[in-house]
Design brief:
Shape: globular
Strand content: 5-15%
Largest sheet: 2 strands, parallel
Low-confidence stretches: none
Number of domains: 1
Number of helices: 4
Mean pLDDT: 91
Helix content: 25-40%
Oligomer: single chain
Distance between the termini: 36 Å
Structural class: mainly alpha
Strand order of the largest sheet: 1-2
Length: 120
C-alpha cells in the first residue's frame, strides 16, 4: 500500500524489515511513562536504522510511533520529517486539509492545496 501511495521508486525499506524490524521504543505506554531518557536511549537503534535508509521521510503507522520517532529525529539530529500513513493516503487522494500538514516537509506542504486568492 505504501508503494502505491508514494510510488515504488520513492520507497526505501528499512533493514531489517517486516517482522524483524526494530521497535521505536514508544509503544505500550512507554511514551507516557515518564522515563524519557531511557526511552530515547532505547530508540537510538531505530533512529540509526531510519538514517541508514537515506530516505527523505519516515512513515509511521501509529500515533505512538509517530511521536517517538519525531522526538528521536530531533534528539539525535536526524531532522527527517515523520508522517502518519493516513496523512500520505489523504494527500495522494487530494483530500488532505491545510490544517493537517504540520509534519510534512516544505516539498509537500502545498501539494493539492486550493488557494482561493489565486484561483482566478
Amino acid at each position: 500500500m505504501v508503494k502505491s501511495v508514494v510510488g515504488e521508486e520513492n520507497f526505501i525499506d528499512m533493514q531489517p524489515n517486516r517482522s524483524n524490524n526494530y521497535c521505536c521504543g514508544g509503544g505500550g505506554g512507554f511514551l507516557q511513562s515518564g522515563f524519557k531518557e531511557q526511552r530515547l536511549e532505547y530508540g537510538k537503534m531505530k533512529d540509526s536504522q531510519i538514517k541508514d535508509t537515506g530516505a527523505d521521510y519516515c512513515i509511521a503507522g501509529c500515533h505512538n510511533c509517530h511521536a517517538q520517532i519525531h522526538e528521536l529525529s530531533e534528539h539525535y539530529g536526524g531532522n527527517y520529517p515523520v508522517v502518519h500513513l493516513w496523512t500520505l493516503i489523504c494527500l495522494s487522494l487530494g483530500i488532505l486539509g491545510p490544517n493537517e500538514r504540520e509534519y510534512l516537509g516544505d516539498d509537500l506542504k502545498e501539494v493539492n492545496v486550493f488557494h482561493p486568492e489565486t484561483a482566478f
